[in-house]
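pasting for ref
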Amino acid sequence: MASRLLSGSLTAGCRKRLATSVSVPPPLQRQRGNHTTTAHCSASKTSTPLEEAVSQQTAAGPQKPEQQLAMDAPTGSVPKKQKHLVMPSPVLPPKVPADPSAWDNAMLLVDKPKGWTSFDVCGKLRPAIAALLRRKNRDVKVGHAGTLDPMATGLLIVCVGRGTKAVDSFMAMRKEYSGTLRLGEGTPSFDAESPVEQRAPWEHITGRQGEGLLALYEDLLRAREGLVGEIQQLPPMYSAIKVGGQKLYEAARKGQEVERQPRTVTVECFDLQRDATDAQSVHFRVVCSKGTYIRSLAHDLGAALGSAAHLTALRRDAIGTHSVVGAWDVQQLAQQLYAQRDERNEQQAKQEQQALEQEQEQAAATAAEDGDGLTPS
């Protein structure tokens, strides 16, 4: 009924009341505290500069939004212009663009290899792009949109030039991951980057024999319920979040435990599938919001099962609508950039040589016409 009321048209009575309630607005007025001043002033009244500006505004007719903001701004203040963000253009495989200007505002989809940090990827690409553009490394802006842990693989968005201004926009997009966690074993970092320090029973999670496939997943599905939707997640100690000016992982390496505040994140999807040959391993797929720690999801799932768990593999499959399928291999991309630099240098050298030969031929022709018998050296 409410939807019909909101989407339906006005009745005749409503239109009549609406018409009678609308009147011609009085001269432009401005509110000052509890008093209202009229922009039109009589000849005998002295107008203030603000009132004169308002009067001119009324006579000039409707103004543009930025002009209205300027009129409403306090005396002496200038409204800030909102800069329009131009999203970077993707540079996609298999070939890098021949036009160097393509790197002024560019975005790369890179498949980060295992063992690399996100900064390693940027550090590999920055000198290659700088060499192609004939610039110094420090003059080329390269940044990534969302850190991946060294043990993780998958999609890393790398922005170049003015594209680095769009990093926050990419980071705000939802993420999609896939991976594997291991039941019954816990680590300080919640993943395989640190040694197993906790072992807990996990056999009870398997389910009872002879009750079909659902029994194998009953405990997993029940434990997952509290980890889907809008949840409060405690960041792991092994993370780059700063507390009191210190990164958490620096304190963790010293054996210190720092009090952290939980953060609100959204887990849209948390699919689980038991490994067919290794009951201790569980494969998963997660779709989540910015700031979600997949390591913490694995750890919390193990705790909810009355056991322990840690990540053994993680891959980022997508960021927003951007997929890792067809993304650049970072080594091959760097090789292409250097190869294009070398090819361009060769072409330039050939052009310079041709220009020199033409100059020499022209000089020889000129000497022959003058009859001085000189030949080019």
